[in-house]
């Protein structure tokens, strides 16, 4: 979750948006953005993908071997 939280926070800041502005623009509650940026692990996947959709990404299963280049 650390990678996800850093990704969202850094990209949001690159857009020059506050958490409130970003939540409104992406169509999720402010608490969703805060939970993602805090690295909370108990989140609704649909909401996470709504937020990631703002950057043209989505959360999906990836084989660890692919991630590690094995």
Overall description:
With 70 residues, the chain is mainly alpha-helical. The chain has helices spanning 2-14, 19-26, 30-37, 45-53, 64-67. Helix 2 (19-26) packs across helix 3 (30-37). The model has no long low-confidence stretch (mean pLDDT 91).
Provide a short characterization of the protein structure.
Helix content is 60%, strand content 0%. It is built from five helices and no strands.
Number of H/I helices: 5
Helix content: 55-70%
Low-confidence stretches: none
E-strand count? 0
> What is the mean predicted local confidence, pLDDT?
91
What descriptive keywords fit this protein?
70 residues, single chain, 60% helix, mainly alpha
SSE diagram, text form:
Blueprint: H1 2-14, H2 19-26, H3 30-37, H4 45-53, H5 64-67
Helix pairs in contact: 2-3
């Amino acid at each position: 979750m650390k990678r996800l939280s850093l990704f969202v926070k850094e990209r949001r800041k690159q857009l020059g948006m506050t958490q409130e502005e970003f939540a409104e623009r992406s169509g999720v509650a402010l608490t969703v953005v805060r939970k993602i940026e805090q690295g909370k692990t108990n989140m609704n996947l649909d909401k996470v993908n709504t937020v990631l959709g703002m950057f043209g990404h989505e959360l999906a299963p990836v084989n660890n071997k692919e991630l590690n280049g094995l």
